[in-house]
Structure formats: structure tokens, C-alpha cells
Amino acid sequence: MFAQKLIHWYEIHKRDLPWRNIKDAYKIWLSEIILQQTRVQQGMPYYLRFVENFPTISDLALASEQEVLRLWQGLGYYSRARNMHHTAKHIHENLNALFPTTYEQILKLKGVGEYTAAAIASFAFEEKVAVLDGNVFRVLSRVFGIWEDILSHQGKKIFAKKAAELLPDSQVSTYNQAVMEFGALHCKPVNPNCEFCPFADHCFAFQNNKQKELPVKTKKSKSKERNFMFFVIESEKKLMLKVRKEGDIWQGLFDFPKAEENDIFQEMKEKIEKEEILFFSNEKKLTLADTNLSFELVNESKNYKHILTHQKIFAKFVHLKVNKNLSEIILQKTDLQLFSEKEIISLPKPKLIVNYLNDYFSKKF
Fold first, then answer.
1. Distance CA 255, CA 241 (A)
2. CB-hemisphere CA count at 13 Å for 136?
């Protein structure tokens, strides 16, 4: 009865999304990776660009990491893009470019968790396996009055058991998409449409006015605040950037050299006024005792706020023009490279860097 009502609701209210009504496992996988930690509205243009640029999994596999990261630019959680590229290469090289067809096989792919594997297996191959994402947790907890913490080990077991029990014998793909869509559009986190809900008569949360309390979820720890000052160093109409190294959250992306300290803004201003610049890539300090070395302060940016999962970044950018002699020393002593504005456009960059470049330079990055 639960499944039938959901499917009936879905057929009337579902959104027309490009990864629906298809059985192409590659494109379904692509959409699921993009939509991890991302709203549909934000992820849609990325999905369309990836499909256009890489119509097959082999096309994605044969692309360079820089191409993939540049296309992903602005979507955040860049490890998703790197894992996706790794998986595409694995399938192309080791599986004859054929996407795995079962839940257990799909689960072994890098960057694929239980929910994503279940979604692909059921949507593309009609395997009878239940999906469990935030929307499904919310629907099940409210309708059936499940109070276990959705982030706890015990809670996940209870919800997984309930989700499996509710799976119909047929129309598995439709049902899984229906329960997710119902949570996204109808049984929303705030202001759910309870008055016109097909489950209102027996929904635990509605009958007991517990919509705000369910689902139960452990509160996140307070995010750390960090202060950055980026040095935008210009030489002969080119800018100096570096690639972020392995293990970094922005691995493979390009940004400017930066400093981080508690009272960074005032301290960095003083260092610039004293003609001292810090380059943290090699932990070396460069002083300007030589009169052949010179720079000028072009401008200091506004303050930027950039929110990541576990931290808030407050940043400011200092634009400096250096002469050729100083430029050569900087490039020798650091891992910075010079790029023209045209070259920078094609580089993958964190959204924070893109926002600054778009605000202070003429081209769109």
C-alpha cells in the first residue's frame, strides 16, 4: 500500500530530469556522483556539460584530470571528481568500458557508497535493492515514527531493514525514485506539505505534531574559522599560481600563494609596507634588500567568506606587481608558475579564487 501510494504520487508530481527514464548506467552514475552534496538545481548544468563533453565513459576516462577538474569547477568536494575520473579509467581499462551490472559489483567502485550503488543498480538494472538518502530517512522516520539517530550505526541498520521491507516486487526503479522525490518535494525538511499528504491519516509525525523533531540527527560540530591572505603576484601581465598537492581538499586545483595567521590582515599589511613578502609553499622568506628587486601594491581586495563542510574561510587578496628580477627569484625559490589570463581560464580553480578573479579582472574565469 505504501509503495503503491508513493508511485501514484510520483507519476503525477515527478520532475522531468535528464537522467530519468533512461537505463544508461554511465549517465545515471554521473548524475548520482554530481548530486552527492549538491542540489538538483545546482547540479543540472554540470551534468549536462559532462554528458556533452564526455558522452561515454571512455571519453571521460581518456580526458586529463585537469580537464575533468576544470569542468567540475565551482561544484566543490573535488574528491568526487577525482574518484569519478579514477573509476572511469578503471572501467575503460579493466572492464572493457562496460559498467558493472550488480549492486555488489558497483559498490566496489571508487567513490561509490551504499546509496549510490543501490541507486544505479535499481535505476539501470531493476535490481531489488533499497535506496537510503537524506530524503528517504526523513520520509520513513516521519511516516513510521522511527526515532533512532540516522547517523548512528544502529539507526542505519533499522532504516535499512525498514526500507528493504517496503520495496515492491516490481517497479523497483520507479519506487526508489518516488520515495526520494517525495522527500525532496513534499515531505521537505521545513514546511512539509502535510495537509495534502497521501499518508496523512497514518503518518506518525503528522498525527503527533513531530515533523520538526524527525528525523533525529546528531548535530554537527562547530566549523573552524580560518583567515587567509592570498598574494596575487603579477609579472609582465601574467599571474603566479601553484597547483595544490596530493592530500589537499583542493588537490589538483590552482590557486595563489597564501598566508594564514590569527591576526593576519594587519600583520601582512605591515610586512608589505616593510617590503617583505612571505611565500609559504617552500616555507622561505624573501626580503628585498637588493635595489634591483621591486614591487608595487596594486590593490587590496574586499573580504571574502567561503564556507566548506568543516570550516569557514575568511580571505583577502593582495595584488602585487613585481619587476622581472624579483619575478625570476620568486619562480626559482617557490613552486609557483606564471600564467596568462587566457591560460588561467582553462585551469581548474577553487570557487573562492574564481570569485576573486571575476571581481577584479576583466575576463570571466
1. 5
2. 24
Give 167-234 as a DSSP string.
--SS-HHHHHHHHHHHHHHTS-SSS--GGG-TTTTT-HHHHTT-TTT-S--PPPPPPEEEEEEEEEEE
Rounded to whole angstroms, the Cα distance separating 149 from 166 reads 20
Give the contacts of 129 (CB within 8 A, at least 6 positions apart). Answer: 103, 117, 118, 121, 122, 167, 172
pTM above 0.70, yes or no: yes
Active site residues: 32
From first to last of its 365 residues, the chain has per-residue pLDDT tens of 899 999 999 999 999 999 998 999 999 999 999 999 899 999 999 999 999 999 999 999 999 999 999 999 999 899 999 999 999 999 999 999 999 999 999 999 999 999 999 999 999 999 999 999 999 999 999 999 999 999 999 999 999 999 999 999 999 999 999 999 999 999 999 999 999 999 999 999 999 999 999 999 988 777 888 888 899 999 999 999 999 988 778 899 999 988 876 555 566 666 666 666 555 444 445 555 555 777 888 898 999 999 887 889 999 999 999 989 889 988 988 889 999 999 999 999 999 999 999 999 977 77
